[in-house]
Amino acid sequence: MNQPEVILVNEKDEVTGTMEKMEAHLKGLLHRAFSVFIINDAGEMLLQQRAFTKYHSAGLWTNACCSHPYPGESTIAAASRRLMEELGAACPLQEVFSFTYRTEFDNGLIEHEYDHVLLGTYNGNITPDSTEVNDFRFFPVDTIRQLMKETPLQFTSWFHQAFPLMLPYLE
């Protein structure tokens, strides 16, 4: 069974090729990704706890959803698709910034991603896919700050990097 492909990029997010997702993560090659942040009208941020069956960062808390666009798919379209697949939610998304990060996991996988960070507002029902999401909750931003200080190991590596960068867009 073929794995989905990711879009390989350089440090300027210029496409350099494609590769099966797991191979790119084994080799630690830079590829395009996205992270969706969702707030509600009360200014609370949606966090999801990743399913305990995920191949890395299982059971950790993170932003609304993350993934990779398919070759030929725009980042916004991919983010909207994954938001619906993971949480059963749809809302307009806007890219607010991007950054590059690299994280090595105990299982030998390496996330080396050019991450496009998108923001949306959503107040409707959430119907998570249990193979992707174990739990979800809207939190006040100050509560997230405090939780990250008190229990940093309960959050994904990319959330530790993206959350502080997102704060100016929430104020």
From TrEMBL:
<keyword id="KW-0413">Isomerase</keyword>
<keyword id="KW-0479">Metal-binding</keyword>
<dbReference type="InterPro" id="IPR000086">
    <property type="entry name" value="NUDIX_hydrolase_dom"/>
</dbReference>
<comment type="pathway">
    <text>Isoprenoid biosynthesis; dimethylallyl diphosphate biosynthesis; dimethylallyl diphosphate from isopentenyl diphosphate: step 1/1.</text>
</comment>
<feature type="domain" description="Nudix hydrolase">
    <location>
        <begin position="29"/>
        <end position="161"/>
    </location>
</feature>
<dbReference type="InterPro" id="IPR015797">
    <property type="entry name" value="NUDIX_hydrolase-like_dom_sf"/>
</dbReference>
<comment type="similarity">
    <text>Belongs to the IPP isomerase type 1 family.</text>
</comment>
<keyword id="KW-0963">Cytoplasm</keyword>
<dbReference type="GO" id="GO:0004452">
    <property type="term" value="F:isopentenyl-diphosphate delta-isomerase activity"/>
</dbReference>
<protein>
    <recommendedName>
        <fullName>Isopentenyl-diphosphate delta-isomerase</fullName>
        <ecNumber>5.3.3.2</ecNumber>
    </recommendedName>
</protein>
<keyword id="KW-0414">Isoprene biosynthesis</keyword>
<keyword id="KW-0464">Manganese</keyword>
<dbReference type="Pfam" id="PF00293">
    <property type="entry name" value="NUDIX"/>
</dbReference>
<keyword id="KW-0460">Magnesium</keyword>
<dbReference type="InterPro" id="IPR056375">
    <property type="entry name" value="Idi_bact"/>
</dbReference>
<dbReference type="InterPro" id="IPR011876">
    <property type="entry name" value="IsopentenylPP_isomerase_typ1"/>
</dbReference>
